[in-house]
């Protein structure tokens, strides 16, 4: 499954640098445009993903490719002040926006930010009760390695969760969604950041991304049990979740 999100001929290193530069260029408008483009559904999607992590007060959670930290804050609401959330990202500009978001809420002190790569998480095995990733599997240089790393750092019995754009299957919705992604999203993105490119990438990245059922199957192949996905908002978004098995 390595390279499923890459364009033919792209090296992982080239893709990583291109993605880093892209997110750096849109970090200042990322949250606003997410809300606009999702018709304000993005917070609901994050809350569903956080709930799938099965966290309780006092737990430790990891938000991989945390971006501006909003999913990390949803996780912080679940683990509470006695818990801990680590948000990791490889883009300094996105981490800077995350720090600003964390400073606006008392729960921000629950979240620790770290720089690092999704494909090589700088944490020991079994460090967290759950690991989540939101809207970033499409952008990582190695999809399988990223999920394998999330499995590694979660304790036995812990959860691995992904929130990602999906591929709706209802014919009318599928056609309308395709039109929205290819025409409306790039236009709004261009108006929001002042240039084209980053939001053209959104539709292109989804075209090359596997169907949600394939991601579930990858969860299973990497050792997770009870792997399943839930479709949100008519199937335009999916929450994938699986449990790391306990030793028999």
From TrEMBL:
Protein name: Demethylmenaquinone methyltransferase
Similarity section: Belongs to the class I-like SAM-binding methyltransferase superfamily. MenG/UbiE family.
GO MF annotations, alphabetized: demethylmenaquinone methyltransferase activity
Pfam families, per database record: Ubie_methyltran
Keywords from the UniProt entry: Menaquinone biosynthesis, Methyltransferase, S-adenosyl-L-methionine, Transferase, Ubiquinone
Keyword S-adenosyl-L-methionine set for record: yes
Keyword Cell division listed: no
Superkingdom, natural source: Bacteria
Matching InterPro entries: SAM-dependent_MTases_sf, UbiE/COQ5_MeTrFase, UbiE/COQ5_MeTrFase_CS
Function in brief: Methyltransferase required for the conversion of demethylmenaquinol (DMKH2) to menaquinol (MKH2).
Alphabetized Gene3D superfamilies for the sequence: Vaccinia Virus protein VP39 (3.40.50.150)
Record's catalysed reaction(s): a 2-demethylmenaquinol + S-adenosyl-L-methionine = a menaquinol + S-adenosyl-L-homocysteine + H(+)
Alphabetical list of HAMAP family matching this protein: MenG_UbiE_methyltr
EC id: 2.1.1.163
């Amino acid at each position: 499954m390595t390279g499923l999100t890459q364009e033919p001929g792209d090296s992982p290193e080239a893709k990583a640098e291109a993605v880093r530069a892209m997110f750096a260029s849109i970090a200042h408008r990322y949250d606003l445009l997410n809300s606009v483009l999702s018709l304000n559904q993005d917070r609901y999607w994050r809350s569903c993903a956080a709930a799938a992590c099965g966290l309780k007060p006092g737990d430790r959670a990891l938000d991989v490719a945390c971006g501006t930290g909003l999913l990390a804050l949803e996780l912080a609401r679940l683990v509470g002040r006695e818990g801990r959330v680590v948000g990791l990202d490889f883009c300094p500009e996105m981490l800077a926006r995350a720090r600003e978001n964390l400073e606006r809420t008392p729960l921000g002190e629950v979240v620790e930010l770290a720089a690092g790569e999704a494909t090589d998480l700088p944490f020991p095995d079994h460090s967290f009760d759950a690991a989540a990733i939101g809207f970033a599997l499409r952008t990582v240089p190695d999809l399988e390695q990223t999920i394998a790393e999330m499995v590694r750092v979660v304790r036995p019995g812990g959860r691995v969760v992904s929130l990602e754009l999906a591929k709706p299957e209802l014919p009318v919705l599928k056609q309308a969604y395709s039109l929205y992604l290819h025409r409306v999203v790039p236009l709004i993105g261009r108006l929001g950041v002042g240039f084209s490119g980053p939001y053209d990438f959104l539709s292109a990245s989804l075209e090359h991304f596997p169907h949600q059922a394939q991601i579930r199957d990858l969860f299973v192949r990497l050792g997770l049990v009870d792997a399943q996905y839930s479709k949100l908002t008519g199937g335009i978004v999916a929450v994938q979740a699986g449990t790391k098995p306990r030793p028999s």
